[in-house]
Amino acid sequence: MQRNNWFNRFKYIQRKRVFLLITLLTIFHNTSSAQKDPQLREALSIMTKASISGDIEGIISQTSPRIIESMGGIDQATKLTKELYSSLVKYGVKIDSVINYVDMDVTKIDGIAYCFIPQVLVMSMPEKDKMAITSAYLLALKEGETKKWTFINLNKMDQEKINMFIPEFNGKISLPPGIEKKTLVVRKEEVAKTVDHLMKLIDESAEKDK
């Protein structure tokens, strides 16, 4: 029963903070073929350091202005991000690592450069011998006068929402298929095997899209 209560609380956090789970890159998959755009690699690194240290300002600075605006501006986005981190701590959830699949091509539409970045998130649970593993996508965008890379987390987003946030993409791109739709709860000794399985699924999906 305790496990179910924790899991329900965790799913509630996910639903309530769907746009904010953009955090914590700790290792690269296929480091020999690192992200093809050096500026994008640097932006991921900045987001990583900010997320690990809990630097809310840093996280907000790497979030797409489109998302910031939809959240009510920087002040409100900052408030919600702080609440997210507080909620994770309260319920005993800690994001230990995110493995980003970085060997992805950058494409451009209507002056907007973009790249879908698959990722696998590994999280600690209140049950010390268990870990939660889930998959998601980041959408990296480079647009506007600043020409800097920022990110949108696509967790729980559908095509309609993407079209709403980025109308320039409407009818021109489709969301990549989900890797694993549910959060997996595994024993610690099974984490490496589970992550490897998910990364192989990403490999296969990436090869099909080439």
Instruction: Give me the strand/helix succession.
Output: HEHHHHEEEEEHEH
- Provide the domain count: 1
Give the amount of beta strand, in percent: 15-25%
The description of the largest β-sheet is: 7 strands, mixed
Instruction: Report the count of strand segments.
Output: 7
The percent of residues in helical segments reads 40-55%
Label the overall shape.
Answer: globular
Secondary-structure-based class equals alpha+beta
Poorly predicted tracts of residues = 10-34
Separation, N- and C-terminal Cα atoms: 45 Å
Separate helix tally: 7
Radius of gyration: 17 Å
Mean pLDDT: 78
Task: Spell out the key features of this protein.
210 residues; seven-stranded mixed beta sheet; 41% helix; alpha+beta
Short summary:
The chain is built from 7 helices and 7 strands, in the order H-E-H-H-H-H-E-E-E-E-E-H-E-H. It is globular, with a radius of gyration of 17 Å. It is 41% helix and 24% strand.
Description:
- This protein is of the alpha+beta class and 210 residues long.
- The chain has one domain.
- It contains 7 helices and 7 strands.
- The chain has helices at 2-16, 38-53, 56-61, 65-70, 74-90, 159-165, 191-209; strands spanning 27-29, 94-101, 107-109, 112-124, 130-143, 148-153, 184-187.
- Strands 1, 2, 3, 4, 5, 6 and 7 form a 7-stranded mixed beta sheet that branches.
- The chain is globular, with a radius of gyration of 17 Å.
- The termini are far apart.
List the helices and strands and how they pair.
Blueprint: H1 2-16, E1 27-29, H2 38-53, H3 56-61, H4 65-70, H5 74-90, E2 94-101, E3 107-109, E4 112-124, E5 130-143, E6 148-153, H6 159-165, E7 184-187, H7 191-209
Parallel strand pairs: 1-2
Antiparallel strand pairs: 2-4, 3-4, 4-5, 5-6, 5-7
